[in-house]
Each structure stands twice: as C-alpha cells, then as structure tokens.
Design a protein that fits this description.
Length: 306
C-alpha cells in the first residue's frame, strides 16, 4: 500500500463529517474536483471503497466507518500534541532542572520554586543540590538548565548573571562582649574560638586569607559543612563564625546575634546558563528568578543591608 498523506486524511475526515463532497471542499478551501481527486487517491491507496453516491450526497461504506474510527483516534492524538505544544509555548508545561549549591537548594530557592510552581502548575521543577565545582559542568553539559551558586566558579559557562551580592556577617552567641560593637573588625577576633566551614572550600579559603594577612590568631574549634550547622553551633556557645548573609537561620534561630564584619567579604549569588537554546519552561524560570531578585522579594527574609 502506498503511503497515506495528511491531505487525503483531512479530505476523508471532512467528507465523513459533513456528508457532502461540496461542503467538505468549501470547509477545506479547495475545489470540488480537487476533493474528488483526493478521495479517489485515498480509495486507491487503502484498497477498499469509501463512499457510494446517492441523491443529495455520499454515503460511507462500512469499511469507511471502521476507517474513520482509526482516523479519529489519530487526530485525537494530534490534537493532544497541539494542546501540549500550545501549553509549552505559553509556558504552561515542560520540565526545568536546577543545579544549586546545597545551601541555596535548601534555603534560598525552595520558597521561590514553590511560588513559581503555583504560578506554572504544569511545569515540573527538579531542584538538585550540587557542589560549587559541579554546577558549571552540569549547566555546560546540559544536565541542568540553570545553576544557582556562589561566585566565582572554577569553570564558567557562557552566561553568568549576578543575582545578588551582600557582605558576610559575624555570628556570635547572644550576650557575647563583641555584640556591643556596631561593626566588628577582624582584629577583635584575636584568640576567639571560631566555628568554620570545612577547609579547602572557597569560602573558608577567603576567610582564612583575611586573618592570615593580618596575622590574627583564632582558635579553630569546630569545622562543619553547612551554614545551618554553624548557626546551631554558635547558638550552643561553641564560638563565633563568619557566615553567608543568605542564611535565614541567622534571624530565625534564638540565642544568636549578627554584626557586620570588617573588612567586608562579599558573597555573590550567580545564575548560570548556557548559550544553547533554552526551553520556554526554563526561560520562564530564569525570568522569574531574575525578577524576584531585582525587586527584592527573593532576599527579603535575609534582611540584607541597603
């Protein structure tokens, strides 16, 4: 059997729907002879009679009725594909993969992702926690549509957008003598017990460099991997610590206070994308995040300095 073509099927479906070659031709915007040729070629292709002529129109054969059931099934699938395509175009469907540093995946992004999901309920969001080193590679290799990480990163993809920047803060137990200061200089931490991030992390390296350059000695009491851990250790009286300002626990955990630190150490939150074409769902997420950071709603809970 020769291959069917969509124009033949459209013609057949129109004749079955309207019961008239003339009316079907008008609906499809073709001449009646052209319609007759399409039905004739379809009849030849399928190998069985489709219509018999009677006064006032055409009557489908039993085989045509059976064939129409299959045609409708196919067209139903096509209509669904069209609806899905329209939904994707309108940013109402699709999947977005986000690779983010664990702190951002657990603290900064969940509320934003929830708001985005409510706004676009048919877009699936996959939020994965990855290391600062991994995120750039994930975006570049297409394993994630976008990344959210602290900057800089070792290997940058094509597009890096700075979403927010703010200085680190010094965290200390409530009632600590240094809490009387409006801004705490590095020199004031001479001899203090210090709760730090793990060694060899970019943040830890930058903090250690500040104290090493000034020959300030601290007692490095405890190391931990997560900002939340530092907050709880400080609240328990284990020492003081420098921490990212993008940590809600600073303001939500009893027993700790924070102060600006001198010299200022900036924490930059970056959005990473690749220069390949993005899906409309991913573009919607990127636009949403940029707007949320630009208008301040993304960082309002962190009480960042003006």
């Amino acid at each position: 059997m020769e291959k069917l073509n969509i124009r033949q099927i459209e013609a057949f479906r129109a004749v079955m729907t309207y019961g008239s070659m003339k009316k079907a031709a008008e609906v499809l915007g073709i001449s009646q002879p052209a319609m007759s040729r399409l039905i004739a070629s379809l009849t030849e292709t399928v190998g069985f009679a489709l219509f018999t002529r009677e006064q006032g129109g055409v009557v489908p054969t039993d085989d045509a009725v059976d064939f129409m059931r299959e045609v409708e099934r196919v067209f139903a699938g096509t209509d669904e594909l069209r609806r899905r395509a329209d939904a994707i175009r309108r940013k109402e469907a699709g999947t977005v993969r986000i690779a983010a540093m664990s702190h951002y995946a657990n603290d900064l992004l969940p509320e934003l992702v929830a708001r985005f999901s409510l706004k676009h309920p048919n877009i699936r969001v996959i939020l994965e926690a990855r290391s600062r080193i991994e995120i750039g590679s994930y975006v570049r290799l297409g394993l994630a549509d976008l990344g959210v990480t602290s900057l800089p990163i070792p290997s940058e993809p094509a597009v890096v957008t700075r979403l927010a920047v703010a200085p680190v803060v010094l965290l200390m137990p409530a009632g600590h003598p240094l809490s009387a200061m409006e801004r705490v200089p590095a020199e004031a931490l001479e001899g203090e017990r210090f709760v730090s991030f793990e060694s060899r992390t970019p943040f830890r390296t930058e903090v250690d460099a500040v104290f090493d350059e000034r020959s300030i000695r601290r007692t490095l009491a405890i190391e931990t991997a997560a900002p939340e851990g530092i907050v709880r250790l400080v609240a328990a009286g284990a020492g003081v610590g420098l921490i990212s300002p993008f940590t809600a626990d600073i303001h939500e955990t009893p027993g700790v206070v924070s102060r600006p630190f001198d010299p200022a150490i900036a924490v930059e939150v970056g959005l990473l994308t690749d220069d390949r074409s993005l899906s409309t769902a991913a573009t919607a997420m990127i636009d949403f995040l940029k707007e949320a950071f630009e208008d301040g709603t993304a960082t309002a809970r962190y009480r960042l300095p003006a």
